[in-house]
Amino acid sequence: MKIKLLRNWILVIAIGHCFQMSGLAQEIESEEDSVVYDFIPDVHYDSIQNRLLQITSDMPLHFNTKVKGFIDYFTVRNREYTRNALANSNYYFPIFEKYLKQYGLPDDLKYLSIIESGLNPRAISSASAVGLWQFVSSTGSYYDLHQDWYIDERMDPYAASEAACKYLKQLHDYFDDWELALAAYNSGPGRVRRAIRRSGYKKGFWEIYPWLPRETRSYVPQFVAITYALNFAAEHNIFIEEPNYAIDYDTVLVSKYFHLPTFADQINVCMDDLEKLNPHVKRGALPENTHNFDLRIPIESKEFVVSNRSMLYDTASKVGQKELDYLSRSSVGSTYGRDQIRYIVKSGDVLGTIAIKYGVRVTDLMKWNNLSGNLIRIGQNLNVWVLPTYYSRLNSKPIAKTVQTPVELDGKKIHYVEPGDTLWDISRMYEGLTVERLRQLNELDNNNIKPGMPLVIGDSD
Fold first, then answer.
1. What CATH code would you report for 45-236?
2. What is the second-level CATH architecture of the domain 333-394?
3. What's the whole-model pTM score?
């Protein structure tokens, strides 16, 4: 009898060890001499397919082996990622839902931010895409998301979510297909159009799948998988202990340098909560040139702040300004207090000579243009941010670029590209014109344009 009991006990230990070694189960709690394992149910292909059919959605949720592979990832191999997304969804989904409804978009697009950022408002990718919706600098600027050393609205859940809705709506209006719109959100509409052309002008995502970039081929299946995972988390034994609930807030206007930790201490608010409400304030302070900034504060603090505004603001404006200003001006890639110009690389140029010409550092040029090395090519556009002293050296001020009068030709309005022009610049010159509309009118696959090139900007009146 004792030998049999011992044999059974060894078997129990061995089974537990196998689960730990396989990665299919992990010890998550030890309490009162009992061990609780993260049990992972074995769910069959047909069961997942039937569950997906139960989801009422305006988004296409096609199921196949590729989607199944990502469902396994989110429900088996990286359950913690799904668990964290589930916890944070309580905080961010109501924000997303507000703007999705405002722009008449499918509610399930809220799951897209999980694929983009894991619901982390301060997420930064290797390609320098930022925030919950992972905007690169140029796209963020196009949708009026302010970015400088102190503030980056790509990290603002509200402003960035509205910008994402505008972009997604624009992509869907163009492709008239949500799977293609998602693919374009990931890789850009030009690459999706190129895949359509190479496929023989097929129209569906799964039809042009082989011609899409590798990352984009995974993007739509991941969206379907995370939509499934969050809708059926309980069926996969994925639960959360502490949901990340929203903080009720109100706003106060700030129009001066403002040190947030000092302010938080004065109003007896946890700095973590103030950062959570204002993740787009990157350095814990607002700069001196701030004008009517809507600072979010816990709603229960509003009355005290209003009653003691002068004292609180005066104290918060006297801490750390010199140190932060010095860091903001000297840090690599800083744009604070600088003006942006565009430089077109010419024959014989190297980053060193361009840096000397404009009084900047090579490391700044690399940071501003996302360069991993010193290699540049003739005709390449470089962003250069110059200090006011640059214009003093030239004894001149920057001249505002005038909008040329379009030429009418064959019933079309034509803009001739000038040196330094980009599609974004041209789109801003003419009311109602967008970069995507410019590409469509001129059948462009990319942003490459050359001086003297005629571009159709619309029909003649």
1. 1.10.530.10
2. Roll (3.10)
3. 0.71
